[in-house]
Amino acid sequence: MEASELDPAALFDLSGNRALVTGCRRGIGLAMAEALARAGADVVGASAQLEATGSEVERRVHAAGREFSGYQVDFADRAAVEQFVAEVTGGDRAIDILVNNAGTIARAPAVDHDTATWERILEINLTVPFLLARGIGAGMVARGAGKLIFTASLLSFQGGIMVPSYTASKSGLSGLIRALSNEWAPHGVNVNGIAPGYIATDNTEALRNDPDRSRAILERIPAGRWGAAGDLAGATVFLASPASDYVCGTILAVDGGWLAR
After folding, report:
1. Domain for residue 45, yes or no?
2. For labeling, which of 62, 70, 97, 103 is most exposed (least CB within 10 Å)?
3. Distances from the Cα of 170 to the Cαs of 147, 177, 192, 225, 239, in angstroms?
4. CA nearest 192: which of 152, 163, 231, 137?
5. Rounded Cα distance, 247 and 252, in Å
């Protein structure tokens, strides 16, 4: 489409779309779900501890005037994940946008990082996002349209400190984003990722509570502050919208300039 034909409002309009956001109960996932709803999408939310009714994400989506359906899914339970995929793909209305955001982290030196923890982190952060992408992406490929967004990490590019399983999972996710994009872009399906910087969420609470680590992190961030979950809203809507129709296989860093330092 020529630039002169573009309608700026329509570029970011998600009206009529149905978005699935995992890990939506709090933090980054909550902000993503709210942003998609405010752009016009109905939201399906899934989190390990999501309340049956009355959740904060449900309240925010409804406040935006959109529909919400919630599911409590243990992403460490592969059978539960497969059942969830079958349920959300078996209805009359398709998933147009998949935000693979659910994840977890464990901090320990590599020599103390037990095998069970390693396997659990890789299951939740890498295997389950693939299962969701495969199950829901198949319908997108068949229809010739869809948007997949993965929550990657700065550690998709760097090694990190005392988080070997997390770094391995997020590094694998960056490769998965590119591999799926190579296969599915010819079918009209955009596969991309967002790499949050140091965001003030539960996952970074230990770092923020450590005066030395917090100071070292802040000294490297050109923006001079920890990020807020809402800082991810614009990138999420962009990658879910027609504005990103020619964006394929990229990982957009929202990091206050960390990677450029």
Report:
1. yes
2. 62
3. 20, 11, 13, 23, 19
4. 152
5. 10
- 116, pLDDT greater than 70: yes
Confidence of residue 1 (pLDDT cuts 50, 70, 90): low
Q: C-alpha angle 60/238/141, rounded to 5°?
A: 100
Write the CATH number for 208: 3.40.50.720
Q: What is this structure's pTM?
A: 0.95
Pair 50, 22: CB distance under 8 Å:
no
Residue 88 inside a domain? The answer is: yes
Query: What angle in degrees, to the nearest 10, is found between the helix axes of 27-38 and 56-63?
Result: 20
Of 71, 166, 198, 246, which is the active-site residue?
A: 166
Give kind and range of the element (H or E) at residue 98. strand 97-100
In a domain, 259, yes or no: no
With a CB cutoff of 8 Å and minimum separation 6, the contacts of 164 are: 110, 113, 118
* HEC readout, 188-241: CEEEEEEEECCECCHHHHHHHCCHHHHHHHHHHCCCCCCECHHHHHHHHHHHHC
Name the token pair of 163.
Answer: 């988080």
Residue 58 is part of which domain span? Answer: 3-254
pLDDT at 9: 84
Residue 166 annotated to the active site:
yes
In a domain, 58, yes or no: yes
If one counts the domains in the chain, the total is 1
